[in-house]
User: Which sequence fits this backbone?
């Protein structure tokens, strides 16, 4: 069973160009199912039955897993079984009889303009880390980037003169992200005043930077660096983001991805057409972008109900 999973992981990396985060999640959660199956006397993937799968789903629910988490695991396992079928590693796919839990339809929650401005102002302009984080927040909101896209940026992906970034999105598909003057200014200040100091941390050890378990003597090309001169990680940025949200006085739960939601929603609120927003977001299908029109319309209706004197019945 382990051999087939290892082969699938190599496929995700080499052929699907999946991110490190995606590969790690798939491997860990399929391993969890594999341990469950082996505990029930299963020695090979072909021995897994729909009955065992339903027992596994029941066990996940009994342990308090959210529907979204269970649905993700079913999706991951389904993709793994599809891979094994396509590569003649088994003859029958037991997941054909299994349905993932239905998830409630939830609209993305954008931040208000006031919340965004407070969040952007939270990092200190007096430290290299603060200048870096301000630039990162400006790019997330100003360019509609995913966090993974932001942290994968290299210095060579930036064109300040043209106010644009070359972004590698899902499936290694490239797009050009356009950024406004505030983002250009924040990024320029980071590159001139903060990144050289962060880069010096790596060069103090002889110019050696750790990568993939080894060391190489090369100046880091990553755009956003940590205090050791290495590419900033998702977990480190997420911790900083949560702290900035608290500093900004935002009381509800906030995630970095909400800035991407806010980017799309605020564009539509400002009169941008759906096709343009689709291109800027890097969505393959307009139906993916369509959900933001619902958010925008909901906000407009809230505004009418709150502001128009004839929007509600009066006693």
Assistant:
């Amino acid at each position: 069973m382990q051999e087939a999973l290892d082969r699938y992981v190599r496929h995700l990396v080499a052929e699907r160009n999946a991110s490190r985060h995606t590969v790690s999640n798939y491997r860990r959660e399929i391993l969890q199912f594999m341990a469950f199956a082996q505990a029930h006397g299963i020695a090979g993937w072909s021995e897994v039955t729909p009955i065992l799968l339903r027992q596994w789903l029941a066990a996940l629910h009994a342990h308090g897993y959210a529907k979204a988490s269970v649905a993700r695991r079913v999706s991951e396992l389904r993709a793994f079984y599809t891979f094994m079928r396509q590569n003649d590693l088994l003859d029958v796919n037991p997941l054909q009889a299994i349905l993932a839990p239905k998830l409630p339809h939830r609209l993305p929650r954008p931040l208000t303009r006031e919340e965004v401005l407070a969040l952007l102002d939270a990092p200190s302009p007096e430290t290299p880390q603060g200048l870096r984080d301000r630039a990162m927040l400006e790019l997330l909101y100003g360019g509609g980037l995913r966090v993974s896209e932001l942290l994968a940026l290299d210095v060579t992906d930036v064109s300040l003169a043209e106010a644009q970034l070359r972004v590698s999105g899902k499936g290694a598909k490239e797009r050009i992200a356009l950024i406004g003057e505030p983002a250009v200014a924040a990024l320029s200040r980071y590159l001139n005043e903060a990144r050289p100091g962060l880069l010096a941390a790596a060069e103090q050890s002889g110019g050696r930077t750790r990568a993939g378990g080894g060391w190489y003597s090369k100046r880091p090309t990553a755009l956003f660096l940590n205090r050791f001169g290495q590419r900033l990680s998702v977990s480190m940025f997420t911790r900083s983001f949560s702290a900035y949200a608290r500093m900004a006085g935002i009381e509800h739960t906030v995630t970095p991805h909400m800035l991407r939601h806010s980017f799309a929603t605020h564009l539509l609120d400002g009169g941008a057409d759906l096709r343009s927003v689709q291109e800027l977001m890097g969505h393959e299908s307009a139906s993916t972008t369509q959900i933001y029109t619902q958010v925008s319309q909901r906000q407009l209706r809230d505004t009418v109900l709150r502001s128009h004197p004839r929007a509600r019945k009066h006693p």
In short: The longest helix spans residues 181-203. The first strand starts at residue 158 and ends at 159.
